[in-house]
Structures are given as C-alpha cells and as structure tokens.
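Section 4.2 – Deliverable D4.2 (structural model, holo form)

The reporting period included a commitment to supply a predicted holo structure for the target in complex with 1-O-phosphono-alpha-D-glucopyranose. Inputs used:
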Amino acid sequence: MIKKAIFPVGGLGTRFLPATKALPKEMLPVVDKPLIQYAVEEAAAAGIDEFIFVTGRNKSAIEDHFDHSFELEKTLITKGKADALAMVHDMIHKPGSVSYVRQQDPAGLGHAVWCARNMVHDEPVAILLADDLILGQSCIAEMVAHYRGGNMVAAMNVPTDQTQSYGIITPGKDDGKLVEVKGLVEKPEPKDAPSTIAVVGRYIIEPTVFQTLSNSERSVGDEIQLTDALAQQIGKSEFYGFRFSGERFDCGSKVGFLQANIAFGMANETLAPELMSWIRGRLS
Ligand code: G1P
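Output (structure tokens):
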C-alpha cells in the first residue's frame, strides 16, 4: 500500500506572472478550487493519508489553505452557512499527517523530491505534480491499483512536436494500459525522441530512487532531474508507464489552464448550462 505522497510546490510559476508574483502558482483556481487541492484530493482517493509538501519561499498560502481559518469558520457559523463550513472542515487533514519541507534552491524536480527523503522510510511513495490536472478518475488511485513494486509513471501520447516538454519513454512490452519503460530521457528534441509516449506528473517511486538522487548531477535545464534518477533504475527493478483513463490538462501553460477551467466548468452540473450557452453564443 502507498501511504505517502510528495507534492513538489517550490516552483516559481514565472509563466503566470503577474498573477504568481505573491500567489503560489499551485493556488491558481480551476473553477473554485486551487490546483494543489485537486492533487491532494486525488491522492486521498488513492488511500494516501500522509501528505508531504516540498515548498519554497512565498508559499505560505499553501500551508494556510490546508489549515484552520478561525475568523472564516466563526463567520460561517454566525451566518449559518453549514455547507461552506463543512467544505472548509473537510479540507483539513488529521494533525500530523501534513508536513512541509523547504527546498531552499529551485534546483529542479529531482532535487525537490530528494528534499523529502527524510520523511520517507523504506517504502514506495507517490509524487504528484499539481500542474498536471486530471479530469475523471483519480490517476494515482488507478496507478496504485496496478502497482506491483518498482517504479511507475503516468504516461500519455503527445504530438511529435511536443516531446521537448516532457520525459519521453523508450517503450518495451505494451498491453495498451501498461507500457514497459526500457529507456527514459528528459525533454528530447523531436528528432532525438525515442517515442511520443510522455511522462505525466504522477509517479510511484521505490526508496532507492532517493539514494540515486543523492548522487545526481544537474542536466537538462541545469536542473537535477527526477527523470535521470528513474532512468538509472531501468534493468534493476520493474518500471512501467501507466496509461490513465482521465483527461490531463497542462496547467503549467496558459492555454492548458484556460482549457481546464472550461472543461471543469462544463463538468460541473450547476455551472454547465449557463457556461455552455455562453460558449455557444460566442461561437455563433
Ligand atoms: C516535469 C518532468 C517531465 C514530465 C513533466 C510532466 O517537467 O521533468 O519529465 O514529463 O513534468 O508534466 P516540467 O513540466 O516540470 O518541466
């Protein structure tokens, strides 16, 4: 069983400036919920009950988001807003189940994950990148259900000209759901890419990856890459890409973020009728 999840949230979010000057990018809302809350709820749906945030400077809004807000709660009680009160209570996890570790330098995803090493013992752990928002079934829950040890990443096909935005898999055996990872390379140019099967920001890693990360050097983008550490595990243990059933939105890009807002709005039965009729009106 996977009980712990790491959420790397130390990134600067420069693509969303000025919105992210004082606001962590993970707090950007899709409809009415910040990206990070979707990721936490996705993990909770997989039975994960320990949440480790790897934060950085100016990220305190994330800590506040998952804590009590006594003024707000008192106001909601006074005004009799029971539903809103229940909602803010439900977001608060058991004391001691949420921890924060600070990544002092933004030295890459591999470095962020390594910063959480002392919170994880001899057990596999999930990693969720809040930028990758998935509509539909909990992707990490699907992965946990198929996990049989070793390492696993969420995988999807991307257009040929987008390989340089992703970790790309050299596929082995492939049954359409699970694809064996025979090689893994970070952000290759299309001409160098071994396939168009890309890693989406959901991982289950075994503890040895932390040891590998301890000795990792900076590579692509002058950052310590999780991809490189995972690539070093190939041949030593099982390693699969998992094709998940949901629809993934790249909320690290403006267009992806806007698409996510529209898709999640359309999936919301209260908002959908008005939103759809407005969209139809705009398109006619
Ligand atoms: C990270 C990983 C990359 C993965 C991607 C998924 O890249 O390094 O391998 O494909 O997330 O979103 P980033 O988007 O942080 O540059």
